[in-house]
From TrEMBL:
It is found in: Cell membrane. It is a multi-pass membrane protein. Belongs to the sodium:solute symporter (SSF) (TC 2.A.21) family. The chain crosses the membrane at residues 6-24, 44-67, 73-96, 120-146, 152-170, 182-200, 233-251, 272-298, 318-339, 376-397, 403-424, 431-448, 460-479. It comes from Prevotella illustrans. InterPro entries: Na/Glc_symporter_sf (IPR038377), Na/solute_symporter (IPR001734), Sodium:Solute_Symporter_SSF (IPR051163). This is Sodium:solute symporter. Keywords: Cell membrane, Ion transport, Membrane, Sodium, Sodium transport, Transmembrane, Transmembrane helix, Transport. Gene3D superfamilies: Sodium/glucose cotransporter. PANTHER family: INTEGRAL MEMBRANE TRANSPORT PROTEIN, SODIUM-COUPLED MONOCARBOXYLATE TRANSPORTER.
Length: 483
């Protein structure tokens, strides 16, 4: 696949993306930017959310992981389904009842200002790092396919990529995000489906033959119950999936801003049920594609694995050129969906939570708030570009592992704060909350570094998030107010 074809594909995709973004956000005010005026149809949000769950990390890393981990990722996705049900029927009614713009406003109502700011700052750190990791993967692929052949530096790649994200989100915020995510969801599903079709064709497999070949492969094992020390062990993956979903969706301003844009909480629940079922089957398609890609790589002698498998095979000369085009469209659809919504959520949270515009006594008039929001939006884009560039200097791990490892440390305190607030009626000394929230990830890091020595070879995986939340809840119990 030549560089010119890639450039034409990317340019065409962004022309369509910017057109949808402009039409959706052309009349958006601050309420439209932050919560979409709460007028979104549930089925539109469901289509948008379906694509937002699938990031550029999923698009590249999930097919690449099957050689090492089989279909074990489905165990985590099963946990995602349970977690989404808990969000829909516990958190969604609560947030709608409180009429929240930012979900972290709940913490101030429950505990106090320090808790509110702590939750907002941990979200800010979590989302900035997570979104940057995801967009970093796109930059790596673009560097390989476009910028290196043209002799252009990685820094220019990063600046241009983040600028495009900023450009299509600055006008409409959530209103633009929802409709552009609908476009991206459709492109994503079409891309992975057609890639499976073309790769199967090159392997001379009919539909039934493809299913049998995948089922017969050692890479298609789903359940792992044998070794508790194995990171693929079922209960590690399943429980981590439940609490990761609650933390990174239910308590994440990025994901919840779509759900809070529905007309009422029942519509939001419908959206969540439809989107999570679709997410399960889309992840299954990615894993199936991974097996086919490895089979094809062996057949033609391509030496690639992990995150490099899909880009290498899709853009090789062994497959029809349309596969490379579909890969580029799918990658950009998934990656820019995550990055655009993250940039909007970071802008919302920083403006409302950290700068204090969520307080009645600090609220600005509409024009001043618009000016503040636009400055914050630019600042978030610049910071994201800087973080991506640093990741480029430090890159040494599988990207999907990096995302969930980061989530284990940074979302744990948020999960603990909300869980304690919902499950207990106890009041706490609010001024000590920041110390508890910082101490919990530190304790988790110590635990992870010494778990093999302390627990007979046991290695923590993504379930570290659960212990992080438990440490936070324990700390809050210790600083509770006596009756």
């Amino acid at each position: 696949m030549n560089t010119l074809t890639i450039i034409i594909t990317v340019a065409t995709y962004f022309l369509l993306l910017f057109s949808v973004s402009y039409l959706a956000g052309r009349k958006a005010d601050n309420a439209g930017f932050f919560v979409g005026n709460r007028k979104s149809k549930w089925w539109v949000v469901a289509l948008a959310t379906m694509g937002s769950f699938i990031s550029g990390v999923t698009f590249v890393s999930v097919p690449g992981m099957v050689a090492e981990k089989g279909f074990s990722y489905l165990q985590m996705v099963m946990g995602f389904v349970v977690g989404q049900f808990l969000i829909a029927f516990i958190l969604i009614p609560l947030f709608y009842r409180m009429n929240l713009v930012s979900v972290y406003q709940y913490l101030e109502d429950r505990f106090g200002l320090k808790s509110y700011k702590t939750g907002a700052w941990f979200f800010f750190i979590s989302k900035m790092l997570g979104a940057s990791v995801r967009l970093f993967l796109v930059c790596l692929t673009l560097q390989l396919l476009v910028f290196d052949p043209l002799g252009l530096p990685f820094l220019l790649n990063v600046v241009l990529t983040v600028f495009l994200v900023w450009l299509y989100t600055f006008r409409g915020g959530v209103k633009s995000i929802i409709w552009t995510d609908v476009l991206k969801s459709l492109c994503l599903i079409l891309s992975v489906g057609l890639c499976i079709y073309y790769v199967s064709g090159q392997l001379n497999l009919s539909f039934n033959g493809m299913l049998k070949a995948i089922d017969d492969s050692s890479m298609s094992q789903v359940f792992f119950f044998d070794d508790i020390n194995d990171k693929r062990y079922f209960f590690k993956q399943f429980l981590a999936g439940i609490f990761t979903m609650i933390a990174t969706t239910g308590l994440d301003q990025d994901m919840m801003q779509r759900n809070l844009s529905c007309q009422n909480y029942r519509d939001s629940q419908k959206n969540m049920m439809v989107s999570i079922v679709c997410q399960f089957f889309i992840n299954l398609l990615f894993l199936m594609l991974g097996v086919l890609l490895y089979m094809f790589a062996v057949k033609v002698g391509i030496d690639a694995k992990g995150d490099g498998l899909f880009p290498t095979v899709a853009t090789s000369n062994y497959l029809p050129g349309v596969v490379g085009v579909l890969f580029i469209v799918g990658l950009f659809s998934s990656a820019y969906s995550a990055a655009g919504s993250a940039l909007t959520a970071l802008t919302t949270s920083f403006t409302i939570d950290i700068l204090g515009n969520g307080h009645a006594d600090k609220q600005q008039d509409e024009s001043s708030l618009t000016a503040t929001r636009k400055r914050v939006h630019i600042g978030m884009a610049l910071l994201m570009a800087a973080v991506i560039f640093v990741f480029g200097l430090l890159n040494n791990a599988s990207v999907i592992d990096a995302v969930y490892i980061l989530a284990s440390y940074t979302y744990g305190p948020i999960l603990g704060l909300f869980a304690f607030g919902i499950l207990c009626k106890t009041k706490v000394h609010d001024r000590f909350i920041p110390l508890v929230a910082v101490a919990s990830p530190v304790l988790c890091f110590i635990l992870a570094q010494n778990s093999e020595a302390w627990f007979n070879g046991y290695k923590f995986s993504y379930e570290l998030l659960i212990f992080n939340a438990l440490f936070t809840m324990t700390g809050m119990w210790l600083i509770r107010k006596k009756k």
